[in-house]
């Protein structure tokens, strides 16, 4: 850039200088302060003092209404400073751009998240923030159940002392008697299981605690009326244990067990009433199907919960899949790192890393509230993230649990900080009338998810999905229309502004003969 060009004022700087010019009566104190800033800016080798001077001049013009001439400065002197600022800045940003525009852009953006920032830690505290309180819960529950510290810290101990019955539940959590009576009624039909660790995440004295809602069934589950639709497998299972919606991805339901049974479980029919071990023959039939269909590229090991498989079975299964040439990537569906993070030990991590070396392994988990992220689960995810190629979250949009901007944004930011990438948010399914009371209207879901654009990191924004024989995105269409010149009008979700976005030139796009090296082809032939 030439010196002349550097000094040539850009439109933003001209606008700024015009805006701060003028006379007035400068009070002595202000004049001294501005004089000091001017001297510092004149000697500066950095942009900071120059920016500071111009900010002060903007303030002086805004509040007492005093222009720079009143401080005895000339426009030439200020233009000189502007030129120097631009030459120091690596990106050639001008004073007009920085002071006159950028500050205003940030100022206009900040209110969009002000409400979230003010409310997030009160309305949606994370398990990390609540850790002292949750540890006190843990001590109490451990004593009630008679668990040793070793029991508490091991996966086998957590399962051995899991809360399956309403009497034990009543001893671990303080629930109203009428609620306990209803739990007894519901568990006559549906199963309940809380690991002691997961039970310790329930906050005492919070009626609809977001963790409690997920693990202790309520009366609505049996009182909701409606027709239960057949489970997904009934018309999507081409082979034993296999569910298939897509040509290149299949799910294999390797177990019906979970460490904790969710009160909103989509696979309730598959979970059934009792834990079952599946035979090697069943797995073999599923593997035969995958082996015989070479369009299958991605295999989801799910359940139930993939991490309920013993390490040996998991090692064998991943080995079998890795031996199939067309299976290139594997996914493991598990909530265990959330409900029982004690499961994530070095043997499991080694098994995952060994398979990941042969082809990417992704762990897909389900975290629905920031309260489920504690220092313990965060550490489990940290270690997982170092042994597999990605850890992704599939949350379910659930009433009272994550059905507000504050709760869902906090969830997404908290898991993002816990080494987990938000992947999907599922709308709670219509298939099971048991969960009708947990459902959230789609418009609300859209507002919550769309509201994230521009306000939180892009890779902390999940896709909003309706599952209906495959996953259908529910995102609002941001293409608002098209101009006569072919440009599209795009809608900025964060402030409602319209952006005019010129489309690819159809004449260029249609002209294959001249595209890139094609244009030389005739020449070569000639
Ligand atoms: C969720 C699911 C998949 C995977 O879908 P993606 O969009 O690839 O995450 C595949 N098969 C079944 C049966 C599923 O439920
Ligand atoms: S972890 Fe998944 S499969 Fe298991 S109960 Fe919860 S939602 Fe159902």
TrEMBL record:
Its cofactor is [4Fe-4S] cluster; pyridoxal 5'-phosphate. It is an enzyme of class 5 (isomerase). Residues 244-459 form the Radical SAM core domain. Pfam families: Radical_SAM. It comes from the Bacteria. The keyword Membrane does not apply. Keywords: 4Fe-4S, Iron, Iron-sulfur, Isomerase, Metal-binding, Pyridoxal phosphate, S-adenosyl-L-methionine. SUPFAM superfamilies: Radical SAM enzymes. The modification N6-(pyridoxal phosphate)lysine is found at residue 471. GO terms for molecular function: 4 iron, 4 sulfur cluster binding; L-lysine 2,3-aminomutase activity; metal ion binding. Its EC number is 5.4.3.2. Belongs to the radical SAM superfamily. KamA family. PANTHER family: L-LYSINE 2,3-AMINOMUTASE, LYSINE 2,3-AMINOMUTASE-RELATED. This is Lysine 2,3-aminomutase. It comes from Desulfobaculum xiamenense.
